[in-house]
Design brief:
Blueprint (H helix, E strand, L loop, with lengths): L2 H18 L3 H17 L3 H6 L5 H11 L6 H12 L6 H16 L1 E8 L5 H15 L2 E8 L8 E4 L2 E4 L2 H14 L1
Parallel strand pairs: 1-2
Antiparallel strand pairs: 1-3, 3-4
Helix pairs in contact: 1-6, 2-6, 4-5
């Protein structure tokens, strides 16, 4: 079975369970914590895949990162995946869970990439402007990409608006090459 189908099944199962027992918002907060953990610790998938490390130790490590803030239901879900030899799919399952949650709540996921970090007030102003433009509630993620020369990238529902200097230079280059 391919990776995406496995992660999708687990994500849908956990989503349905969390919704049924009315912990969807708690599970979503836990989901974001786990996603952050995976982004910071690139080698965590190898750790979760290791047959030498016990599932209890793997769960403990994840909960330790979350400073004990993961709900017992989220911990049981992760343990279920690890016990079923699906630890390598935990990250993708939580990414898919996040998509299911946002869709359920009618929230648009927006990522903005900038060459430098922006202040909290700039982030709030950007969020207000995007909320007005998209006419929808949104979750705004701002990421720093130092390879951008200037400007920014906005990603909404898989579509990219490239307003970076690098992107604009690439467009000009393509026009010159193609005539």
């Amino acid at each position: 079975m391919d990776t995406n189908r496995i992660a999708t099944r687990y994500a849908k199962g956990f989503f349905a369970y969390a919704k049924q027992i009315n912990i969807l918002d708690v599970a979503y907060r836990n989901c974001n914590t786990i996603i952050r953990f995976f982004k910071v610790n690139r080698d965590i998938e190898e750790f979760l895949k290791s047959p030498i490390i016990s599932s209890e130790e793997k769960i403990s490590k994840l909960n330790q990162f979350a400073e004990g803030d993961l709900s017992p239901y989220t911990l049981k879900f992760i343990k279920l995946m690890i016990d079923n030899q699906r630890g390598v799919h935990v990250y993708n399952a939580f990414l898919l869970f996040k998509q299911l949650y946002l869709k359920e709540k009618g929230i648009v996921d927006v990522t903005v990439e900038t060459p430098v970090s922006i202040s909290l007030s700039e982030k709030e102003a950007l969020k207000r402007a995007l909320t007005k433009k998209l006419k929808s509630d949104l979750e705004l993620n701002v990421e720093v990409r130092e390879d951008l020369i200037g400007g920014f990238l906005v990603m909404v529902n898989g579509k990219v608006l490239d307003m970076s200097v690098k992107g604009q230079l690439n467009k000009i280059r393509k026009k010159l090459v193609n005539g």
